[in-house]
């Protein structure tokens, strides 16, 4: 019998989770909202590294792991591939395509916090949309800068930083207002891909605002890769599970 372990934490993963059955398991790290009303089992929290995940796969008789974590959740993706190898079950992954730059874009690629800080140095009003990492650096904001950090955290900020606790999707009118009200002169983002958070890039292009883009991490090889939930769900339905105990 098929029993899927879906590793999630993204809107795409939730789309897949909605189609899973009672015997399947949807796993979340525990940072965001836990969805309700799913037919499948939902579990929350880490497994304890590769060993813990391999043990879970074995003891829960998981027959397929689907890694639908965010493209920047590289640790979990690496753990999933290694644990599947150890436990002898296939690993599929949803690997959403990144955004690509268009005419009029001014993208500056960086691959770590130090590079990012160098890249934003010439600017004054920085909009971070790259997760919680800036919150650990609020005491280091250069005197000429003001940071607006949009992330899933109700942090109070400080005299040089405002935190916006908001969850996408974000539309173009809202993004235009955010840039205008805060006089944004540089945008910091991950290359997440997908439509839900793309409007900020359209606004940056309209306003000639440079974009400091964090490079995607390298992800492990897996048995099968898909670029959309629909494509993955089709494969899941078409697969012959009759030989699986
Ligand atoms: P990460 O660095 O790759 O993972 C850190 C640890 O969190 C993992 O080693 C694992 O702990 C636990 N973990 C992560 N995803 C899990 C899941 N789906 N189920 C159970 N445990 C999980 O991950 P991250 O970048 O901190 O992201 C955490 C979660 O937020 C991910 O599930 C991701 O899909 C989601 N998310 C991340 C981003 C982003 O930009 N990174 C954006 C949106 C959503 P153990 O080693 O103990 O198993």
3D structure, described in words:
The chain is α/β, with parallel strands linked by helices and 245 residues long. The mean pLDDT is 96. The chain has seven helices and twelve strands. The protein folds into two domains: 4-97 and 217-238, NAD(P)-binding Rossmann-like Domain (Rossmann fold, 3-Layer(aba) Sandwich), CATH 3.40.50; 107-214, 3-Layer(aba) Sandwich (Rossmann fold), CATH 3.40.50.720. The relative contact order is 0.17. The protein has helices at residues 11-17, 49-59, 74-87, 113-120, 172-182, 199-207, 229-238; strands at residues 4-7, 25-28, 41-44, 64-67, 91-94, 107-110, 125-129, 146-151, 161-165, 186-190, 211-214, 224-226. The strands form two sheets. The chain has a six-stranded parallel sheet, sandwiched between helices. Strands 6-11-10-7-8-9 form a six-stranded parallel sheet, sandwiched between helices. The chain is elongated, with a radius of gyration of 20 Å. Helix 1 (11-17) links the parallel strand 1 and strand 2 (25-28). 29% of the residues lie in helices and 21% in strands. The protein binds NADP nicotinamide-adenine-dinucleotide phosphate (NAP). The site of NADP nicotinamide-adenine-dinucleotide phosphate has 24 residues, from strand 2, helix 2 and helix 3. NADP nicotinamide-adenine-dinucleotide phosphate binds next to strand 2, helix 2 and helix 3.
Secondary-structure map with pairings?
Blueprint: E1 4-7, H1 11-17, E2 25-28, E3 41-44, H2 49-59, E4 64-67, H3 74-87, E5 91-94, E6 107-110, H4 113-120, E7 125-129, E8 146-151, E9 161-165, H5 172-182, E10 186-190, H6 199-207, E11 211-214, E12 224-226, H7 229-238
The structure holds NADP nicotinamide-adenine-dinucleotide phosphate.
């Amino acid at each position: 019998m098929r029993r899927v372990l879906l590793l999630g934490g993204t809107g795409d993963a939730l789309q897949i989770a909605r189609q899973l059955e009672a015997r399947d398991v949807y796993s979340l790290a525990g940072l965001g909202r836990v969805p309700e009303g799913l037919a499948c089992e939902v579990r929350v929290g880490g497994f304890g590294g590769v060993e813990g995940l391999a043990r879970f796969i074995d003891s829960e008789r998981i027959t397929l792991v689907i890694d639908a974590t965010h493209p920047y959740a590289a640790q979990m993706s690496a753990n999933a591939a290694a644990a599947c190898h150890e436990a002898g079950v296939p690993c599929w992954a949803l690997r959403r395509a990144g955004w690509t730059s268009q005419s009029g874009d001014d993208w500056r690629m960086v691959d770590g916090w130090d590079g990012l800080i160098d890249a934003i140095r010439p600017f004054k009003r920085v909009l971070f949309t790259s997760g919680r990492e800036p919150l650990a650096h609020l005491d280091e904001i250069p005197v000429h800068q003001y940071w607006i950090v949009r992330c899933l955290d109700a942090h109070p900020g400080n005299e040089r930083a405002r935190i916006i606790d908001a969850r996408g999707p974000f539309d173009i009118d809202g993004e235009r207002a955010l840039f205008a009200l805060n006089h944004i002169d540089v945008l910091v983002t991950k290359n997440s891909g997908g439509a839900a958070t793309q409007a900020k890039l359209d606004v940056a292009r309209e306003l000639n605002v440079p974009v400091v883009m964090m490079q995607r991490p390298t992800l492990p090889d897996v048995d099968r890769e898909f670029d959309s939930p629909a494509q993955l769900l089709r494969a899941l339905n078409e697969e012959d599970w009759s030989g699986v105990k």
